[in-house]
Recover the amino acids of this structure.
């Protein structure tokens, strides 16, 4: 299987769906002109298409539109009767899709959070679909080019909202959340080893003056967080920034809800494909597919998550931490989920 690390090869009993497809051996497609313009390349592009098993007349949902890289790949496999519903909570993604997708009657755009998938289906009168895709987290454009304070690499106001109309901002979390709530965030969402020390430092600093920018916060964190030698590459601010972003955008909560609602939005035998970049998200998806309850609804197609080939990582570094899981809605679960 080319150069995929041995430990992450899919189990033999489940690999046939993807590996037997001759397309699998084609090289990773280069990001197209639109992806380059948006500064975001879709990860695991071939694997996503194969995992979704796109049929020309099928109806699919891209729950995380972003630059539309995955959406355009799905559209490239759809015939004139096929449909793609593409959702994002960030209006910039929708505005961009209005450019690249403006003449495509197969594409339906919706600004919403994907945890409202059931309501969106109802509103659009959609029946269960042939496949759902969630490529979680932020696009590279949001992280580095949005000016919305997602990254410690830039000095910007503390915002971090994917949906700029939502109420909670990173400024409010950092400056107004009670210490206990902040501690919980730093312990459970950021998974920092010294949550008490970090919380105490933030609380002491904000008592003197508000922590206004990503630069202020990152300087503060640099002083209090020391990485062991194994973590040299990780900036001290990375995990706390991620924890705050997860809290501001209710990301873990949205994923939990999506995993509960997805079966009712899929035809029996259709696949839910989830690409995650954080270990806790991958654990959440794995648990949904493999828990005692989950096994009644899903066939977990791969015991280990699918990861990017070295050839893809060479052209897209973001792909190095991508983990894809595929759950197939069981045929027999049809009644149980109505
Ligand atoms: C990693 S990017 C997706 C990139 C996309 N697959 C592509 O090829 O360009 C994730 C996108 O999902 C959006 N997003 C994250 N959580 C969301 C949610 N709960 N509901 C809707 N969109 C969400 C983000 O705004 C971002 O645009």
């Amino acid at each position: 299987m080319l150069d995929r690390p041995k430990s992450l090869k899919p189990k033999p009993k489940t690999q046939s769906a993807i590996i037997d497809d001759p397309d699998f051996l084609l090289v990773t497609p280069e990001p197209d002109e639109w992806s380059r313009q948006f500064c975001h390349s879709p990860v695991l592009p071939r694997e996503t298409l194969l995992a979704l098993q796109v049929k020309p007349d099928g109806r699919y949902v891209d729950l995380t539109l972003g630059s539309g890289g995955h959406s355009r790949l799905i559209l490239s496999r759809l015939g004139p009767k096929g449909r793609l519903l593409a959702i994002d909570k960030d209006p910039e993604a929708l505005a961009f899709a209005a450019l690249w997708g403006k003449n495509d009657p197969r594409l339906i755009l919706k600004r919403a959070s994907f945890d409202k998938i059931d309501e969106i289906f109802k509103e659009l009168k959609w029946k269960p679909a042939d496949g759902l895709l969630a490529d979680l987290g932020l696009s590279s454009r949001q992280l580095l080019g949005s000016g919305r304070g997602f990254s410690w690499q830039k000095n910007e106001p503390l915002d971090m909202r994917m949906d700029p109309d939502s109420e909670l901002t990173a400024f409010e979390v950092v400056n107004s959340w009670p210490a206990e709530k902040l501690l919980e965030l730093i312990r459970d969402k950021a998974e920092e080893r010294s949550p008490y020390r970090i919380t105490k430092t933030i609380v002491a600093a904000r008592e003197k003056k508000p922590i206004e920018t990503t630069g202020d916060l990152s300087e503060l964190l640099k002083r209090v967080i020391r990485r062991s030698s194994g973590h040299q590459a990780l900036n001290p601010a990375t995990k706390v920034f991620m924890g705050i972003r997860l809290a501001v955008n209710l990301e873990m909560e949205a994923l939990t809800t999506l995993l509960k609602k997805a079966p009712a939005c899929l035809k029996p035998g259709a696949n839910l494909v989830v690409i995650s970049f954080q270990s806790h998200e991958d654990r959440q998806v794995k648990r949904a597919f493999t828990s005692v309850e989950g096994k009644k609804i899903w066939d977990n197609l791969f015991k280990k998550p699918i990861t990017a080939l070295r050839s893809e990582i060479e052209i897209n570094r973001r792909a190095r931490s991508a983990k894809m899981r595929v759950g197939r809605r069981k045929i027999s679960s049809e009644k149980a989920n109505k």
User: Anything to note?
Assistant: Residues 45 and 81 are 23 Å apart (CA to CA). The chain has two domains: 6-141+255-333, 167-248. Strands lie at 59-62, 83-88, 107-111, 129-135, 266-276, 298-300, 323-329. Residues 1-21, 334-338 have pLDDT under 50 and may be disordered.
